């Protein structure tokens, strides 16, 4: 079996494992990486960009190197190569968990349990839940589903197709560091700068593929391809994130809803612009966003597996 065939098959199997099993409840490798990063931060933290860049480089390069070493060990056995890629794909994907958390929010909103919905939404977003009413929670949930479809499903698959196990692990290291230190708090404004910029670069192509897939698959949730594309062209630039903007705009257009607006993060108010047309999301729109997320994930898998197969002849 050629290495590219093993890579494609491993991506398919890993995606299937995430679809059926979701994240492991205990001993998750990403959680272990987070603990390692937090322990290292206690030694490396300085209020400077240089210190943050060094911290980020050590962790990302170390993770990529581990992936390279693992692939070299597995090089002579096609079965081990497939199993290794499948295990790494399963470890870094978060599609099932994302959909489970979103559905849990929708269930609490449908039951009129606003306090429970506020607690549940903190599993998906960093904004202050105390300020959110039912409509605000629905909007936050739909926006999180959109952004995390790109971050937790599409991007890992593309990096896995392009660079195998090192790409899968390296991407997840970058994305995890961005979540840990890439936000604009007083502590991390400088220290987390490198992690945030690296995450922006790593998601540049995946976010645009996610937006294109969401627009193209809009009819699966009763939406319009044209409306989704129009929202991306017109509104993506309103969002402060260069990657979340296109994806959230595409979901807004596909769902026929308006996303974006003012959010509160730890007392800091941030205006994320207006994305899409139509009314604000309702509780029932969370289920539609989840269906669109699943369709985008399946489309990204097809692209990634096809890419992994096709790069073989060129690489040789």
UniProtKB/TrEMBL annotation:
**Record membrane topology:** Multi-pass membrane protein
Pathway, per record: Cofactor biosynthesis; adenosylcobalamin biosynthesis
From the Swiss-Prot or TrEMBL record, what is one GO molecular function term? threonine-phosphate decarboxylase activity
Any idea where this protein resides?
A: Cell membrane
Q: Where are the transmembrane segments?
A: 292-312
Any one GO cellular component localisation term in the record: plasma membrane
* Predominant cellular place of this UniProt entry's protein: membrane
Keywords of the record, alphabetical order, are: Cell membrane, Cobalamin biosynthesis, Membrane, Transmembrane, Transmembrane helix
- One Pfam family assigned to this protein is CobD_Cbib
Keyword Cell membrane applies: yes
HAMAP family annotated for this entry? CobD_CbiB
According to its UniProt entry, the function of this protein is described as: Converts cobyric acid to cobinamide by the addition of aminopropanol on the F carboxylic group.
Q: Which family does it belong to?
A: Belongs to the CobD/CbiB family.
- Name of the protein in question: Cobalamin biosynthesis protein CobD
Q: What is the gene name? A: cobD
């Amino acid at each position: 079996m050629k290495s590219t065939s093993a890579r494609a098959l491993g991506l398919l199997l890993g995606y299937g494992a995430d679809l059926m099993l979701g994240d492991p409840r205990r001993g998750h490798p990403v959680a272990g990486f987070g603990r390692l990063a937090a322990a290292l931060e206690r030694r490396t933290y300085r209020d400077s960009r240089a210190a943050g860049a060094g911290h980020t480089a050590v962790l990302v390069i170390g993770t990529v190197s581990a992936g390279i070493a693992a692939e070299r060990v597995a090089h002579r056995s096609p079965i081990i190569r497939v199993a290794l890629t499948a295990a790494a794909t399963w470890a870094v994907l978060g599609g099932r968990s994302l959909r489970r958390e979103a559905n849990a929010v929708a269930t609490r909103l449908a039951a009129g349990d606003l306090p429970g919905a506020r607690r549940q939404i903190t599993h998906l977003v960093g904004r202050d839940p105390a300020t959110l009413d039912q409509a605000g929670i629905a909007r936050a949930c739909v926006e999180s589903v959109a952004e995390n479809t790109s971050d937790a499903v599409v991007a890992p698959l593309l990096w896995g197709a392009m660079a195998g196990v090192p790409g899968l692990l390296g991407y997840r290291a970058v994305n995890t560091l961005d979540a840990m230190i890439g936000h604009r708090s007083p502590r991390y404004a400088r220290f987390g700068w490198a992690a945030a910029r690296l995450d922006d670069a790593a998601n540049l192509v995946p976010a645009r593929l996610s937006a294109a897939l969401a627009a193209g698959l809009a009819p699966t949730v009763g939406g319009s391809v044209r409306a989704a594309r129009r929202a991306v062209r017109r509104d993506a630039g309103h969002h402060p994130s260069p990657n979340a903007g296109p994806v959230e705009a595409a979901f807004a257009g596909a769902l026929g809803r308006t996303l974006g607006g003012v959010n509160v993060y730890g007392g800091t108010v941030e205006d994320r612009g207006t994305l899409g047309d139509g009314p604000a999301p309702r509780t029932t729109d969370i289920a539609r966003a989840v269906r669109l997320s699943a369709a985008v994930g399946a489309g990204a898998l097809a692209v990634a597996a096809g890419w992994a197969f096709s790069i073989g002849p060129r690489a040789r």
